[in-house]
Amino acid sequence: MPATFETSFAKALLGAEATFPPGIAAHTGAVPARRFAVYRNNVMASLGAALAQRHPVIERLVGGEFLAAMARQFVMQHPPRSPLLAQYGEEFADFIAAFEPARELPYLADIARLEAARTRAYHAEDATPLGGDGFAALDAETLGDIRLQLHPSAAILRSPFPIVTIWAMNSGELELQPIETGQGEDALVVRPHLDVEIRALPPGGAAFLQSLAGGRPLRDAIGAALADHAGFDLTGNLAGLIGSGVVRAILSPAERTP
Amino acid sequence: MSSNTVPARTALANATIAGSFAAALAMIAAPAFAAPKPPQPTMDKCFGIAMKGENDCAAGAGTTCAGTAKTDYQGDAWKYVAKGTCASIKTPKGTGSLEPIKS
Amino acid sequence: MPIAAHLPASAGVGFKPEHAAAILAAAQPIGFFEVHAENYMGAGGPPHAQLTALRERYALSVHGVGLSIGSTGPLDRAHLTRLRQLCDRYAPASFSEHLAWSSHDGVYFNDLLPLPYTGQTLARVAEHVDEVQTALGRQMLLENPSTYLDFAESTIAEVDFLAEISRRTGCGLLLDINNVFVSATNHGTSAMDYLDRFPLHRVAEIHLGGHDADTGDAGEPLLIDSHRVAVADEVWALYREVIARTGALPTLIEWDNDVPDWPVLRAEAVAAQRILSGAARASAA
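Output (structure tokens, whole complex):
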């Protein structure tokens, strides 16, 4: 079947210029430019709104007008490829990083990454995190060789900007106040149960978790954390590892080599 | 803490890891950790306090089978200036300036 | 294929997560809830927890908004698989989709876009409906759209198009009375004429929603199917007329944008229920 009406209609929906496809009509006999504009507006406004809903902190940081204008550019370059709107905007952070009008807000892209990770965690597979009991009976002899399976919702983000503080101050968690220092922060995003949680990781914590997430044994992960930050606090990080619910299971050496 | 002094190059003794595990489990069991803490994420030990934000926002967009009556303003992004809370954030790599950005 | 009316012939409401606490806190006088399929296609998390809780207490209708049944191109098989998994998991009383398209060449537009009504598009849509019903192993309902423009190449009236699709595929029809009113206004036709010609015996569910007023290119009225306000009086009047002819039918209140507090939405459902109950009493008398 020829796809003529659909092809030209689709092209006109996302074009930069306000145009309309051939073959459309209105009972008044007038050229139905405004009528076609309803569809064009539905597409742009709804996809812009989808990006805004996924990035409420970005909206708060730059304001609704700026976000809408930025979203319009993004939608034209990266329209959705799936009807699962909650996943729309995976490329938004990279787009922001290269978006000239946002140049003076260099932390904005990392905030978008944090917000995108939050949505992924919200919709991630459910899994019961391993509690303290699960760690209590480990064999001291092989402890360095264990590998950990992290929670399916877990994401680790590293940033040269204070992304957790910026996020927290713009999502009702912390009082809004000036940030002057700009110390970088690493974030852990995880949904151990129904609520997505964001935590600021201590020094070396991100390297530690990334190594574990990569399937490395605990001993290697500790080495990676120490290489990243000489003052890595193993006890504190283990407490965080267990307390945050970021571990789903312990994979013992025996399980790996049947 | 003893774990802080382990050199990265030498293999970590299992006993050292076990000691840290025991201490970590004791920390988690301590009542101080169960109590509400002041919201100072960057100051907190371990993995910081768990912040939830508005969890509805974490859902992302819901679908609609309706059109919209709100007209999407067809402005040019480069004519816009960020007007949100970004004004209060100053980082070494960017000022968060509110000056219009020339195209 | 006879029309299997699995949903209760009472008033239901489109479920919004912001109402979950109010709905689950105490029994609500709601016949069923309808959800958009695409919002429950993630792996886990609160959406599935809420839908599971809802399903335990109420009849459920799954309403797709992204299958693009009106596309000239093939259906998205991956999406069809996701729909089947969702229907298998929650065993809804009803599955419905729209006479519209929303994807083209892999791009999803997030809007219900119009198609010309011709012999060719009719054959294509009928194939797609067949494919959906086969994949899901159940009858589906097809909904009449709100449209804002016509196509010069259209040769078939929308009512005849829908009637023929239903006849060929055995699918049921979802009659959106707000869409009927919006489209009739937008095309300068009569909503009552449309309803007079509509195959009401194929209708298994009714939708009622709100619209906004705009103007077209010649200053003529142009209504937008916005679902962000209460159901209009004219639409209530058409609804009463339809129910008087059909008897009670499952009826959904749709409110998707600027979603109000639960009591406001519930009041709309109660208003629809009053009309349904009146029809039931009239037929019993």
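Chain A has two domains: 1-105, 127-258.
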